[in-house]
Design a protein that fits this description.
The complex is a heterodimer.
Chain A: E1 3-9, E2 18-24, H1 33-46, E3 69-70, E4 73-74, E5 96-100, E6 109-111, E7 114-115, H2 118-125, H3 147-157, H4 164-168, H5 175-186, H6 195-209, H7 219-223, H8 231-251
Parallel strand pairs in A: 1-5
Antiparallel strand pairs in A: 1-2, 3-4, 3-5, 6-7
Helix pairs in contact in A: 2-6, 3-5, 5-6, 5-8, 6-8
Chain B: H1 15-22, H2 28-31, E1 35-39, H3 43-55, E2 58-62, E3 80-81, H4 93-103, H5 110-130, E4 155-156, H6 162-179, E5 183-186, E6 189-197, E7 200-208, E8 214-218, E9 221-224, H7 245-251, E10 257-258, E11 263-269, E12 292-296, E13 313-314, H8 316-320, H9 330-342, E14 354-357, H10 359-365, H11 367-385, E15 394-403, E16 406-407, E17 420-422, H12 440-461, H13 473-492, E18 496-497, H14 498-512, H15 519-539, E19 540-541, H16 551-575, H17 599-602, E20 604-609, E21 618-623
Parallel strand pairs in B: 1-2, 1-9, 2-5, 9-17, 18-19
Antiparallel strand pairs in B: 3-4, 6-7, 7-8, 10-16, 10-20, 11-15, 12-13, 12-14, 14-15, 20-21
Helix pairs in contact in B: 3-6, 3-12, 4-5, 5-12, 10-11, 14-15, 14-16, 15-16
The chains are: A alpha+beta, B alpha/beta.
């Protein structure tokens, strides 16, 4: 089949960028979307043109590296599927597709379809962990975890950090991403000691990065390739309120909310 | 070159304890005076960087991906082994050790493997404490499943995403150290050279993949956790970016490369569908717990699977290996799949495939149990092939998955260059000639959490290290060499893309240095690889500049290294006149087609030393001794 592609080209963060039209004349329905772009890129290279920059690595939907908008939908038309796992049989001959990078203030564009998602790492660094130095753990079966909690934790932990939730959200909110980690660690017994501090710090960091607030629109859930549920945001909110009250009681006066992170990262 | 493996003597049970006690320690207040570079942020690199940061060292961690969380460990599906014996089914440290040495076809170091089996139990504890959401029983205890090459259930898992969850555990620990200022993270940075000063590894030269800048980083020790080199075959289950550049360039600076021909072919991958294919996708080995593998009994049988009656199907693994059945080790399962396809009994359009059928398991356990166990894998299969495995049996075929070979390291994980440590898949150490399923995660984390943090201290405390800065002449020399290579690649302006060379190299390696090999084919491949390499440096086309993000340029540097490594792999495969594990030489097989080892002549590690790109490498041998597990012909019948 033959497709017409309109692709966002932008040489660097300082370049204004524009849409450029390309022809994909010979697309095999068994190709993945990224393989189709590989073929377009090989043809561009042989013509001496700069190939289209896009991120990808595992190409099996687990590393979270790939992702862009196809006709305005993050990761394209198939639900629960990253763009590397989207296959061309989902499209038909003559389709016209518009490809654009994730757009959000907190995700600066690097080149073409690649963006900088370092803000996600900083949200995790702010509290998305359980502090346990190597060597200090008790036997694995000392910590019993009800199966149900283990399942909720796993559902949330499946997040691949691709950024589709932010790209789809009209507010460019990172609440689904942040909430997924808060839920994963918050429903496990191991995560309880740091539960309150974690939610306060992670939410503060997300705000400091320039992500917007959640207004319960649900676009994020609709495009999430791992089908993370909106409930993780509800849990974040509950934990945040509880943690805020506990904090007041502890410090009496208004204690400073954790400072956003600086340093330690280039 | 002298290979001192530093393996401790005495009873195997106490070897690691004894070694730990004899190690020199770095005083807690002095740790912050040391800078350590860790290249790679996967299970091995990420766990090491986090652990060293916790101990108080200053760590700089580099990865080519945009975040440490993307390292390819994330794609491991099935699970991680540990000798917990929670199932009360007869497991023990000794049994895991025994299974691993036997599974590796007696080409690994006994004491390394024993240590790995001992540490396996600590890994599970550590990961549970980090919040890794392992599968649980209703009572809240940890679940297990069985895996190839073992008759006990010792594999811990988190659905089909075990690697992801373990990696995120390590990554979160790493980010905690980043926030604490102990680790500085350098994402989108690729190591392009090692800097050796006064015979010791003292730093690396990197390219910033966003700006193109060439940068020098100095340290007191360098740790490589950069994964395997399976992408030399172009099509593999590895991520697109996985490459050999860091270890290859270390090899060219004097680190010995051990057993490069020991590569693992995974039996359960989705078959190739066309020329444009960019990677192969693994279907976890855990599927073999419930799936039954078969092909039609008659050649060229083109009927759809549901039209082939039971008595006309050949469940060839169950038939040939009644005691292990579908759970034979990976090398055995792969070779048998190739054999039935060579007999033209393969299925699917290309004839390069066998069925993995869940019909019986769904009848026995119900569809919902199968969905719970393997749902995400079934979904992935459906997305890629367009076929629903709940209705039609999966088609699978072997693909390159893992490389047991890698840089030679001693018992303390140090290479032949003092101060250069190599961990995880990047080293050669624990899996011999074949790795058992669910053991890669175990090894990466053992190296990262529990071995390297001790052994690097021993090196630092016992070594006099002068301060070096990145403006040292040796750094400048390496920077110049890296910049020159980049310029050369950009200036050729030939007629073929990097990918077209990579595809041709991959096909050559798959055909002649893949699932089975013979002397004639290997000699042919060596000549062809040399020709292709020559053509590459005259005819490759890399557009763009080196002052910006340039993904074709990144790929070009990696393929240049694969073109050299491929030759070494063939040389190693040609010199090893025996069959063992994943290395199957057609000339050396038992009458019933199993691998025929030659322990008298080849019970050694082949550690190759660089002697110039166009000169033959020098072979060094580390003899292997077996005191506890006596070499026998592996039998899974």
């Amino acid at each position: 089949m033959r497709l017409t592609l309109h692709i966002w080209r932008q040489k660097s963060a300082s370049d204004p960028g524009r849409m450029v039209q390309y022809d994909a004349p010979d697309v095999n329905p068994d190709m993945s979307f990224l393989e189709m772009l590989d073929v377009v890129n090989e043809a561009l290279t042989l013509k001496g043109d700069d190939p289209i920059a896009f991120d990808s690595d595992c190409r099996e939907g687990i590393c979270g590296t790939c992702g862009f908008m196809i006709n305005g939908v993050a990761h394209g038309p198939r639900r629960g599927t990253t763009v590397c796992q989207l296959h061309m049989r989902k499209f038909k001959d003559g389709d016209v597709l518009y490809l654009e990078p994730w757009r959000a203030r907190a995700f600066p564009i690097i080149k073409d379809l690649t963006v900088d998602r370092g803000a996600f790492d900083r949200i995790i660094a702010a509290g998305g962990y359980i502090s346990v130095p190597a060597g200090s753990a008790p036997d694995g079966n000392v910590i019993l975890v009800p199966k149900e909690n283990a399942e909720i934790a796993m559902d949330a932990a499946a997040c691949i950090g691709c950024g589709a939730c932010v790209a789809a959200c009209p507010n460019a909110s990172a609440s689904l991403f942040t909430g997924a980690k808060i839920t994963h660690l918050g429903v496990l017994p191991q995560g309880q000691p740091e539960r309150r501090e974690r939610v306060i710090r992670m939410v503060a960091q997300a705000n400091a990065e320039g992500f917007g607030y959640c207004t319960n629109i649900g676009e994020c859930e609709a495009v999430c390739p791992k089908e993370i549920r909106l409930e993780v945001i509800a849990r974040t909110n509950r934990d945040f309120i509880a943690a805020s009250w506990a904090r007041r009681e502890r410090f009496r006066n208004d204690a400073p909310i954790s400072e956003p992170l600086a340093g330690g990262r280039r | 070159m002298e290979l001192n493996s530093k393996v401790p003597s005495g009873p195997i049970e106490n070897a690691w304890d004894k070694d730990k006690f004899e190690m020199k320690l770095v005083n807690p207040a002095n740790k912050r005076k040391y800078n350590i570079i860790v290249v790679g942020s996967g299970l091995a690199g990420g766990a090491t960087a986090a652990s060293l940061g916790e101990l108080g060292y200053n760590v700089q961690c580099f990865c080519f991906q945009d975040s440490a969380r993307r390292a390819h460990s994330i794609a491991a599906q099935g699970g991680i082994n540990a000798a917990k014996n929670y199932q009360n089914d007869g497991d023990s440290v000794f049994r895991l050790f025994y299974d691993t040495v036997k599974g590796g076809d007696f080409r690994s170091r006994e004491r390394n493997v024993y240590r790995l089996a001992q540490l396996s139990v600590n890994i599970i504890d550590q990961c549970v404490a980090q919040g890794v959401p392992f599968a649980r029983e209703y009572g809240g205890t940890l679940s297990n499943r069985s895996f190839g090459g073992a008759q006990v259930s010792r594999t811990f898992y988190a659905r089909g995403q075990t690697g992801q969850q373990l990696l995120l555990g390590a990554y979160q620990g790493l980010e905690r150290q980043v926030a604490a200022g102990q680790v500085t993270m350098y994402p989108r940075s690729e190591m392009l050279s090692l800097v050796v000063i006064d015979g010791k590894a003292r730093g690396i030269v990197t390219r910033n993949l966003v700006t193109g800048e060439i940068e020098s980083h100095a340290a007191d020790a360098v740790v490589l956790g950069t994964g395997g080199y399976g992408n030399v075959y172009y099509l593999s289950t590895n991520a697109r970016g996985s490459n050999c550049t860091a270890i290859w360039r270390a090899y060219k600076h004097g680190a010995a490369f051990a057993n490069p021909c020991f590569t693992q072919i995974h039996p359960t991958c989705i078959p190739v569908s066309g020329e444009y294919q960019s990677k192969l996708t693994l279907m976890s080995e855990s599927l073999r717990n419930d799936g039954r593998i078969w092909v039609p009994k008659t050649a060229r049988d083109k009927r759809p699977p549901n039209k082939i009656p039971e008595q006309e199907r050949d469940y060839y693994l169950e038939r040939r290996y009644p005691s292990f059945g579908n759970l034979v080790p990976r090398d055995v399962a792969s070779r048998n799949a190739k054999a039935v396809c060579d007999e033209e009994r393969g299925v699917g359009e290309t004839g390069l495939g066998v069925y993995l059928d869940f019909t019986d398991a769904m009848e026995r356990l119900g569809v919902s149990v199968i969905r719970e166990r393997y749902g995400n894998l079934f979904d992935m299969y459906e997305r890629i092939t367009g076929e629903d495995p709940y209705q039609v049996p999966m088609r699978i075929y072997p693909a390159i998955h893992y490389t047991m070979g890698g840089l030679w390291v001693d018992y303390e994980l140090m290479s032949t260059i003092p101060g250069l440590f190599v961990i995880g898949e990047a080293n050669f150490s624990d899996h011999g000639a074949n790795r058992l399923g669910a053991s890669a995660l175990m090894q990466g984390l053992a190296d990262g959490y529990f071995i390297l943090p001790y052994t690097i201290g021993n090196y630092l405390a016992g070594t006099k290290l002068n301060k070096v800065q990145p403006d040292h002449a040796d750094f400048k020399r390496e920077e110049t060499a890296v910049a020159e290579m980049t310029q050369r690649l950009l200036s050729i302006k030939g007629k073929r893309t990097v990918a077209s060379f990579h595809r041709e190299l991959g096909k050559l390696m798959w055909d002649y240095c893949g699932m089975s090999r013979n002397a004639k084919g290997l000699e042919f491949a060596i000549g062809k690889v040399r020709e292709l390499r020559q053509e590459y440096w005259h005819n490759v086309d890399v557009v763009g500049s080196d002052k910006e993000m340039n993904q074709a340029l990144e790929h070009a540097g990696r393929v240049a290294d694969f073109l050299e490594l491929a030759e070494l792999m063939c040389i190693d495969a040609l010199h090893r006149n025996e069959s063992c594990g994943g290395h199957f030489r057609e000339e050396y097989q038992t009458p019933d087609g199993e691998a025929l080892r030659d322990d008298e002549h080849y019970a050694y590690v082949a550690a190759w030393e660089f002697a110039g790109v166009d000169n033959p490498p020098v072979l060094n041998k580390e003899p292997l001794e077996f005191e506890y597990v006596h070499p026998s012909q592996r039998s899974y019948k």
